[in-house]
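Practice set, problem 2.
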Amino acid sequence: MSAVLEDVETAPKEFWLVSNGEPARRKVLLTPEFEEKIYSSGRYEIVYGEIKERSMPSPVHGRIQAKITAKLLSHVEENDLGAVYTETHFELAENLSRVPDIAFVSFERFPEEGEDKSSRWHVAPDLAVEVVSRTGNFEDVQEKITECFAFGVRQVWIVSPESKTLTVYHSRKQATILGDEDELICENALPGFRLKLTEIFQPPR
């Protein structure tokens, strides 16, 4: 078990810890200091009384995530639209903090004092991107999509390296599936953004 989950001698709250590779969940105690460790680690999400360990990305997952991040960052900075984040906590509600693989926050959503200086954002991103693996939990992905739209995310992209598809969720019930020969054109969450999917799914050699 990660060192992040140690040193919990006293705490005002109890949470269930759900670890990868462990069949049963177990209770842990959560102090404010321990909570900050959870937020700063990026390996765990807090979901309504559960602390869920996130799966470590495969090389393919990591490569595709990096390519999408680079494309988004270039467009966002060139057009002065906001900021792009990776593996960052977004506290959507009390006891609900998610860590999208990639997120975009427009300047419209920035507070007056600027970028959040704490261990997590306290606003929902405009765009959340998840790169899923073949071992990913379908129900967990659908739960994340539902939460995103419930708390103000404008668009969600679910990227599947295995099927070479990118599914654009415009709402919880409306989605567009794009294949590796398609081009993503995003005018809602990211005005002017275009991405040929061959550019992200093409292997290094």
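Problem 2, part (b): a different protein.
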Amino acid sequence: MLRGSTERLPLSSEDSSLAERIFRESVVWKKYLDHLISLYCTTPLEKLDEDVLLSLRIGAVQLSKMRIPSHAAVSATVEAHSRRKTRGLVNAVLRKISVHEDTGDLPLHIEYSHPRNLVDKWTRTMGAEAAGRLLRWNNSVPELGGYAFSRFPGDSSPGRYLENYRRIPRRGRVKPPSGFYIQDESAAIVARGMRELPGEKVLEIG
């Protein structure tokens, strides 16, 4: 939807970037957001209409994780339900979330929105403190960059490992120059290593 026809969803570069960030954070923090919503929603989440729950997640993530001003996050989300009976529910829940403060005693799998069995395994293996650091890193916004086959894009900085890898800032919609391929540096390292295996078969998993 965000990368489709501009006639279907005419967004500026800045609005498109914000929409993609909201989508990304809503997915990353889904388990935490559902916990937060359930604190203030009297209707069980599984009984809410899907679009109502999605709207609540979108509003909640802006308030709790993106620090968007409450008047903007609440009003924009409520406006989407302006002609529906669900307007009052969405408004009431988000206004309560806007003043919510975590008590600091949430289980790690809720606090960082990860599968419980994975968090339990990491905690057993490396301890709660190290597991917490890994969870925070895993939820952080990844760097944006790519491999330069020809010229480097302007306003870029060197990667960590590859000479031709460049990191670029996240500002609006990215329009890479010709010869610059957007990808994570770890993927670029694998591709670079393939050059050392001419004629060999390689299985890519993932």
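Answer key, part (b): Strands lie at 144-148, 157-158, 165-168, 180-182. The longest strand covers residues 144-148.
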